[in-house]
Amino acid sequence: MREDVNILGVPLSNLCTEPFPESKQRVLLRNIAYAGAVSALLDLDHSIVSEMLDEKYKKNETL
């Protein structure tokens, strides 16, 4: 392992399994959680990321 690389484990599947029993919803929510985790790590503007996700998933009210 390189010393300049840090690994951060985010339990995306575990976070999405219980609240979203339907498989398709879990996959979508896992992608949304992934986008949130990456945006936090890169210190992106959360309002912009939120707006983009709202636009992408606006038809799926369950998310």
TrEMBL record:
Return the protein name.
Uncharacterized protein
Species this protein is from = mine drainage metagenome
Q: What is the lineage of its organism?
A: unclassified sequences, metagenomes, ecological metagenomes
